[in-house]
Structures are given as C-alpha cells and as structure tokens.
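User: Continuing from earlier, I have the next pair ready.

Assistant: Great, send them over.

User: Here they are, in order.

Assistant: Folding the first of the pair now:
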Amino acid sequence: MIGQFADAVTRGVGDMTSSVTDVFDPTLRLGVTGLSRAGKTVFITSLVANLIDRGRMPAFSAGARIDAAFLQPQPDDAVPRFDYEAHLAALTARDPHWPEGTRAISELRLSMKVRRGGMLSGLRGLRTVHLDIVDYPGEWLLDLGLMERSYEDWSERALARLAAWEVPYDAASVDGAAKLEEPQAQRLARDYTAAMQAARTAGAYDLTPGRFLLPGEMAGSPALTFAPLPPGEAPRGSLRREMARRFEAYKRHVVQPFFRDHFARLDRQVVLLDVLGAIRQGPHAVEEMRAAIADVLSAFKPGALGWLMQLLGARRVDRILFAATKADHLHHTQHARLTAILEAMVKDAKARADFAGARTQAISMAALRATVEETREHEGRHVALVRGRVLEDGMPGREVALHPGDLPDDPAHILTPARRGARTWPEGDYDLVDFAPAPLTLRRGEGPPHVRLDRAAEFLLSDRL
C-alpha cells in the first residue's frame, strides 16, 4: 500500500510538466480496448484515416474546425508505434484483407490544427490538439481483474472456466504438495495454455492470464510458468507454493506496470465488443462476454475531474464508448436491436461509470463497411439482406447475399437464456458469417466507408476540439 502510494506521488510529479504543456498544446489520450476479435486494429486505422480525410464524417461536428490533421512521432519512446500505414495499405489494396490483430501494445499520435470557436475566433489563430491513441491486446485486458485475487481464488475460477467449456486439463492428478520440479511446472504451464487456446476457439472470453496467449518477449520466463491447481497443502519448496509465488510475480511485474503506465493515464476509453460473434457462438459465449466486461470495467477509474486537478496531473476516464462492432453484417433495420442488446450486456458496468461521473454511450458501428444492403422479394414479402464476400478459411471467398435472422425486439430474449446456461438459442441459431473487406475506390478527401464512426468520434473528441 505504501509503495503504491509513493509510486502514485512520484508519477504525479513527473506528469506535472506534461500537464502544464497540455495547457498550450492539449493532449487527449484515447484507449482502445476490447475482447478478442472485436476489431481494434481496424477501428484505429479507419478512425485516423477519417480524421485526416473527413469527407465521410458528417456527424462529427468538430470536423469543420480542423484545418489539418497529420501524424507525428509519439511521446512514449519505449512503446512501439502503431503501424498505421501498413494496416491502411491492407484495407485499401487492390485485393484487400484484414490486417493482423493486436499482439502487443502500441501507440500513435495524430495532431490536429484546430480553429478556435467563439466571437473572437478569427483573432486567436489556430491551436494544436494532440490525440494519442493507445492500442493493446484484448487478451491482456482481463488481467486487470487479477489484481484483487489470490492464487487460490484464481485457480478455483480458472479450473471452473475450463470445466464449463468442457476443455480437458488434468490438474487433479498433480501432487501440488510435492517438491517443485521445473520440467513439471513448464509442462503444466504449456498444458494450461493449450487449454486456454481450446476454450477461446470454443467461444470463451474470460481467460487469464492474458500473456499466456500472447506472451511477447516474456515467453518462457518464470512469471509466465505457472498454472492453476486444486486447493491443498503448500509446504515450503512445493509445486503449489511456487505456483502461488509466480502468480504474485506475474501481477507485480506484468499487470501492475501495465495498469500504471497505460491505463492510469487515459482520458477517454473505447470498449469494442463483437456482440454478433458471441451470439453466433451461443448463449454461453454471450454470458461470458457480459461477465468479462463487467470485471474489466471495475479496473477503470471513471469520473469527471475539475480543471485544477487536471492541471496538477491527475487523469481519470471521463467518457467511455461501448461499441458493438461489425454492424454492417446486419441490415441497418436491425442496428437498433443490436444496440439494445449491447446496452443490456454492459448495463452494470455503465451504471458504475455513470455513478462515478463519467459519460457513457453505447452504439452499433462498423469501422470499415464490408457489405452493401439490398432488399429482395421472397414468398410474397420483402426481405432485408446484406451482400459481401464471405471469409472462407481466412481468405475472401464467394459473394453472397443473406438474411442472418432478425434479432429480438427484447434483449432479454438473448440475455435470459445466456444467464440460465442454455446451450442453444430457443428460436434457433443466427446465420451470421464473417465478411472480407470490399475493394475500395476512395475519392479525394474521403476516408474508408464506415457505419457510425463519425458518431463515435463526435462523442469521444468533439468537446475537446
């Protein structure tokens, strides 16, 4: 506790210089997060492209005041740069493809020359506003929930998760009270990682530790060589005692620095959720997503700060956008229902943030539109369809027009079976597929086509511009 307090004071003093600088060149730090397959990389790429060329951003009111937007070197030299150019090239190529997903933390700075508002705006000239976008893997996000858990609590929860998804992991036969043998510890860590991969493939979201799935430069380190074990004795030098020690080391050396260096410095947050992907996986996946995002949001520090506290370096997330991605996989007549389902899923987390003073909003969107809409007559009635190139084994396949099924008017028809542990939807599965990006022809001044990305930018940025 004392160490954390001292660290916070030291960090606050260090931030004062940048905070004073912000008075002249304001900086807004935007965190982009979400669970796996939510589309974080595409969101950032399309957002930046559409802030530079704002021809497709009619709902972004501040766009008219931006004279120029351009990329600059990021302020954090120790954080890799988000590879914007490569990702944009993938999406706009003659044969476009989805870019690689987020595998490590990265950052990008977009600077904007903005005309001032008010009666004397013509006399005050332009000001520069920096937008620092921080991207990090969704697999790391859930680790924040480990901060308040012991090894025993985490083990019980992790073993229960694997059992619920019927994923094999043989921990019951392991004698945790026996003397530590490093090869056995490494084998257990590999077996647990494989079990996590299998559970994720089946539709699981709440899988920790996240670095086991994306270890990066820490692969093979002791902090990543532990696994859950059933409860029992833990004498000195035993396997169970060492597993618990390494679990605490993981929190100390991986989770805490991540929270301190990145989470605690955010002003705005985007939480992207592939709600349609969870619905396709079934009720169990929907409930797991709902529970996971509630755990994640408890680690944020939402709320409003006065100008004096901002000047002194204190930062707090004051706006959170919840976005259901891939809305272009549905006809626009279904988008309101998708938004209602999202709002019901994040209700608890949203209420907590609202109570703390943060503004929240939920929308359905697509950072890059991959389909077009059409209506056809079938058996005497008009059917709303979406048409696009289906992904088959990760590659663009045939072009199809399909009606994935109508989402229910009442979100309870989705959430209630999920909470009750149903294995299938009472009214049948939804015919949801993954689409490949469509070839683009961009006119001068236009960014990539999207669905409601301008409304997302309006909520997140306009008040600061």
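And the other member of the pair:
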Amino acid sequence: MKSIIIKASFYLSAMAIVATACNYETKENTTVTDSVIQDSSSTTTLKPAGPAPEWGKTIRPEMQVVIEKLASYGDKPIESLGAEDARKNHTPTDAVIAVAKQNNISIPPAKTDTTGKDIAVNGGKIHLRVYTPKNTKGPFPIVVYYHGGGFVIANLDVYDASAQALAEQSQAVVVSVAYRLAPEHKFPTAHLDAFTAYEWVIKNAVNLKADPAKIAVAGESAGGNLAANVSIMARDKHIMIPVAQVLIYPIAQADMNTESYKMYADAKPLNKAMMTWFTEKYLYTSIEAQDPKISLINANLKNLPPTTIITAEIDPLNSEGLMLANKLAAAGVKVNSRNYEGVTHEFFGMGLVVPEAKQAQAYAAEHLKAAFR
C-alpha cells in the first residue's frame, strides 16, 4: 500500500549501551533506567521469512516481520532522494498495516473522536489534529504531541497510531501538531511552530474540553526534540511549563560517532546515512548542529518537568537517550527512562503487531497519568 503522505520519522532516539538495567540517584531526584526484555516463553504469532539481519541480531520476530515487509516494497533509500520523493516512500506504518492484514489481525475501533484545526504561525499556518476520548466527560488533561521524521518527512497520518494510543491510554485530549518541514522551512522553523502550537493549546484548552492546568508534551524522534524544546522555551518565556514530558527516542546531540552509531550504522528503518541527510536538509550549516535546540545535552535543563524517556535497542541514536537522562538528572529533573530490547527506531506506534510497542505505550501513559494526578 503506497503512502502518498509524508513519512518516516526516522530521526533520533536515545539510550546508550543499555543491555542491563541501572539505577542512579542525584541529591534532588531519582532517575530510573530500565532495560526491558521480552519473555521468550511468550507466544509468537508472526514468523520472519529469513534470519535476523546482520545489523540487528537481537531483533524480535514481530519487529523483524515489519522490517521485512518494509524492505519488500523496494523503495530507494531515503538518503538517495530529494525531500519530495522521499516523502512518497512507503513508511513503517504502511508495513504494520500490511502485516496486520496479511495475518488477519483486526484494527480495533478508535476510542477517540478526531477534529482538525488550522492555526496561524509566523509566516503561515499549520494544522492540528485533536483526539478526544469517547464516551466520557471532560475536562480532560491534554497532551501536545509532535511527530517524527527528521524535520523533513512524515506527517500526522504516519503517526496517527501513536497519538491515538496516548489519548486512549492516558484518557487525555491529544493535540498532534503538523509543524512545517524542511528543506522548504529550515531551522528553527519547526521549533518555533512547535512552541506556537503549545501556546495556542494553553489559550484554547477549555474549548478543547481540557483542563489548562494539566498540559503535558510528548514527541517521537525529531518530535521528542521539539517537545523538550517547548518545555525549555516555556520556562524561559515564563509561561506555564508542561506538567510532564515524554520523549521517545528524541534528538539529543549531534555526534554521529557514539557507541550506538557504530553498532547500528546500517540499521533499519533508520541508519547513519539517513541521519546525515536529515541534518543537511534541516540545518543551514553543520555548525548549527551544536545549537542547544538540536543538541539538547548542551542546553540548560534545570527546572524542567518530570521526564519519561523511551528508547529502542537497535537504533543508531540509542546512546543519546542515556546521555540526555544523565544530563537531566544532573540538572535536578526527575527522570524515568526505559530501553526496549529487540526493537528498532519507530517501534512505538506499532502496538498492533509489536508487543514491545504496547508495553512502551502503557509505560508512557502510566507516567502521564501520574503527572496529571
């Protein structure tokens, strides 16, 4: 099923060489880092067609089936294309839907109603998609969600499953933000759009059947970076800071020689070559990669909200999640961090077929609900 919509939040992730769980404390907070291993005795319904790939020997069967389906489309590598053509490639979401259909896995009916809203931003407008829980009354807490795609590709449809899962499991209104993409709109356009959307949500929370005192931010990949930046900008501009932030394999630094970059340089659906391509498309110069908005580990992280970081083992950007968790903890921020083994970048929205995705969604929802209480 060819996707005409943009895709592939193949951008950054987090975590580092985390093969075992580790806990560490600072004077002001506790950071918990977990490594989740799927019980090998559990029933596997999806069987890969071939052996585990060289770049991911620990890959879980369900995850491998999705990656095999994605490869079967025969699309040209993202890094060999222009942005417009790259946005026409099949996406991991396409692969998940195809795998579900081939294996008679039904897509459950949505437990949310969705509406759309265009809002003004500097120099144009952007679209918001609002997910509201069905069959229950507000006011609800609210999550402002930012999709992935390296600031260049992907859109709200590609990340629909992630946003809907957060809305359903957190019993919150989720506002998914279609910020403008590069290279048409270069750095820091996406960051500014992200913050404008957050301000709009604060001002319009009541109209969304939401509680303006209970607003969190969340994002995947490039969107995880945007979510963290929104919290930083809210703090610096002295407006309401989110009560929590959920950062799912976020952009956290610019060094492409970390341990996970070395281990997973050829991984799928994200690899080192694609990361270079994304960086070149969004930034004007390579020097901008050191800007604290991109390299969060260089930012002032003090007085940020409680943070949940979710990462995937088989991801070239895995290492930076742990770096960011360490930096946040050192700045006095409460951090809960969990690494999911045997899965790749982009796994979070694959709950329909990948068990670890369901676990990660529940983990995110658990911490969001705690913050809303």
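Worth noting for the second one:
DSSP finds ten helices and ten strands in the chain. The first strand starts at residue 22 and ends at 25.
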